[in-house]
C-alpha cells in the first residue's frame, strides 16, 4: 500500500515524458508481472534459506531500485526500475504470509494477518494523502523517493527486530525435483485453489480501484491530485474498518463464515457498481462509494484467504505463499490489460470491472470454497 504514493504522480509523469501514455501502462504492467514472477523465486528461496535473509535481500533491492527510479531520465529507465522494484517487493509479501504460517495455525494466523493489515490500512490512508501533497508541491520524483525511504525503514526494522521463524529449512526447496513435486502438490489441491480464487479476485478488484482510479478521478471527474489522494484515503479507511471487524469475527464465525460476511458486502458492491456504470452516474460521491464498499469487503477477504491458502502447506509455506501471490498478480495483470483497453470509454468499464470481481468473490465465497472445504478436503494442521 505504500506504493499508493506513486498513484497521484502518474498524470505528471505523462506530462514530463511526452507521448508516454503507453509506456506508463507498460510500467504498471511490467511491475505487476515482475511482482508475480518474483514471488516464485523468493518463496522457494525462503523455504531453503529462511525468511530473514530473503526479507533483507528483497528490501535492499527495493530501496536501491526505488532510488534509481527517482533519478530516471527516460521513461524506459523508469520502467526498468519499477520492474525491479516490483520483483523486490515480492520478497516482503511472500515472507510475511509464510512467517504467519510458521508461527500460527490457520485460524489464529488469519487474526494476526487482519491485525497487521489494520496497521497497513492506516499506512494506506496516509500514503495517498502524502503522495498527493508531494505531487502538488515537489513533483512525482519526490513520491518515488518517499517509497524508497519507506523501504529503508522496513529494512532497518527487519534487521534490528525480526528473528528467523522457519523451524526446518528444506534443502530440496530450490532443487528442480523437489520444486516440481511441491508445485504439483500445491496446484492440484482443490482447497488451495478455492481459497486462492478468493485471494486473486479481491486483489483483481483492488487493482481495478487503484489503477483505474487515477483516470476516473483525475481526468474524468477532474479532481486535483490532493483531492484524489483524499479519495483513495477514504477507500483505505473503509478497508481498515473491514480488517478491524474481520479479526473480531474470526473467533466467532471461523474463516469461512467471516469471509462470507465479506461476500455479502461484495454483493452490495457489485449491485451499486452496476447501477453507477449503467446509468453513467458522473459523481465523485458515487464512485467513492464503490471504492469504499470494495475496500470494506477487501478487509474481510484478504486476511482470510491469505491465511487459509498457504496454511494448507505448513511444511512449504514459502512456496505455497508464492503461488498465492503469483495468482493474485495474474489477476492484477488481466485487470490492467482490461482497463488499458477500455477506460477511454469512461466510467462504465471501470465500474463494471469492479462489479465483475465482486461477483466472482460472491461465487467463490458462497459456493466454491464451501464445496471444497466441506467435502473431505480439510486443511492440514
Structural features, described:
The protein is mostly helical. It has one domain (2-161, 173-372): Up-down Bundle (Growth Hormone, Chain: A), CATH 1.20.1250.20. Helix content is 84%, strand content 0%. Helix 3 packs antiparallel against helix 4 (75-103) and helix 5 runs antiparallel to helix 6. It is globular.
Number of strands: 0
The topology string of helices and strands comes to: HHHHHHHHHHHH
Low-confidence stretches: 375-381
Looking at the structure, the CATH topology is Growth Hormone, Chain: A
Helix content: over 70%
Quickly give the CATH architecture.
Up-down Bundle
Question: From the alpha-carbon coordinates, what is the Rg to the nearest angstrom?
Answer: 20 Å
How many helical elements?
12
What's the pLDDT, averaged over the residues? 86
- Number of structural domains: 1
Superfamily at the CATH H level? MFS general substrate transporter like domains
The secondary-structure class comes to mainly alpha
Strand content: under 5%
Q: Give the CATH level 1 class.
A: Mainly Alpha
> Which overall shape is indicated by the principal axes computed on the Cα atoms?
globular
Please describe the biggest sheet, giving its number of strands, its sense, and whether it closes into a barrel. none
What is the straight-line distance between the termini?
Answer: 31 Å
Q: What are the defining features of this structure?
A:
single chain; globular; 381 residues; Growth Hormone, Chain: A; 12 helices; mainly alpha
Amino acid at each position: 500500500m505504500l506504493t499508493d504514493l506513486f498513484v497521484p504522480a502518474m498524470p505528471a509523469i505523462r506530462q514530463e515524458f511526452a507521448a508516454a501514455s503507453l509506456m506508463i501502462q507498460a510500467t504498471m504492467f511490467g511491475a505487476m508481472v515482475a511482482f508475480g514472477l518474483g514471488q516464485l523465486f523468493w518463496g522457494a528461496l525462503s523455504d531453503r534459506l529462511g525468511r530473514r535473509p530473503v526479507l533483507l535481500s528483497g528490501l535492499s533491492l527495493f530501496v536501491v531500485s526505488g532510488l534509481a527510479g527517482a533519478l530516471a531520465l527516460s521513461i524506459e529507465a523508469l520502467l526498468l526500475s519499477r520492474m525491479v522494484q516490483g520483483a523486490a517487493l515480492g520478497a516482503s509479501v511472500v515472507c510475511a504470509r509464510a512467517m504467519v504460517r510458521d508461527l500460527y495455525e490457520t485460524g489464529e494466523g488469519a487474526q494476526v494477518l487482519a491485525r497487521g493489515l489494520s496497521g497497513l490500512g492506516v499506512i494506506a490512508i496516509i500514503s495517498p494523502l502524502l503522495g498527493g501533497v508531494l505531487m502538488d508541491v515537489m513533483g512525482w520524483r519526490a513520491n518515488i523517493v518517499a517509497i524508497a525511504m519507506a523501504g529503508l525503514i522496513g529494512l532497518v526494522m527487519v534487521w534490528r527486530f525480526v528473528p528467523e521463524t522457519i523451524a526446518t529449512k528444506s534443502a530440496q526447496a530450490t532443487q528442480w525435483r523437489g520444486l516440481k513435486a511441491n508445485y504439483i502438490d500445491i496446484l492440484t489441491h482443490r482447497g488451495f485453489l478455492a481459497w486462492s480464487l478468493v485471494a486473486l479476485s479481491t486483489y483483481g478488484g483492488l487493482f481495478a480501484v487503484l489503477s483505474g482510479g487515477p483516470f476516473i478521478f483525475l481526468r474524468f471527474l477532474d479532481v486535483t491530485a490532493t483531492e484524489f489522494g483524499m479519495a483513495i484515503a477514504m477507500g483505505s479507511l473503509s478497508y481498515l474498518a473491514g480488517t478491524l471487524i474481520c479479526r473480531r469475527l474470526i473467533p466467532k464465525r471461523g474463516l469461512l463464515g467471516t469471509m462470507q460476511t465479506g461476500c455479502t458486502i461484495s454483493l452490495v458492491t457489485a449491485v451499486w457498481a452496476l447501477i453507477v456504470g449503467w446509468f453513467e452516474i458522473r459523481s465523485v460521491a458515487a464512485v467513492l462509494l464503490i471504492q469504499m464498499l470494495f475496500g470494506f469487503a477487501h478487509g474481510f477477504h484478504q486476511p482470510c484467504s491469505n491465511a487459509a491458502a498457504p496454511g494448507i502447506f505448513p511444511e512449504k509455506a514459502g512456496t505455497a505463499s508464492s503461488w498465492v501471490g503469483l495468482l493474485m498478480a495474474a489477476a492484477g495483470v488481466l485487470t490492467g490489460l482490461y482497463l488499458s483497453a477500455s477506460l477511454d470509454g469512461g466510467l462504465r468499464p471501470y465500474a463494471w470491472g469492479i462489479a465483475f470481481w465482486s461477483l466472482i468473490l460472491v461465487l467463490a465465497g458462497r459456493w466454491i470454497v464451501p464445496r471444497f472445504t466441506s467435502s473431505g478436503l480439510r486443511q492440514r494442521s
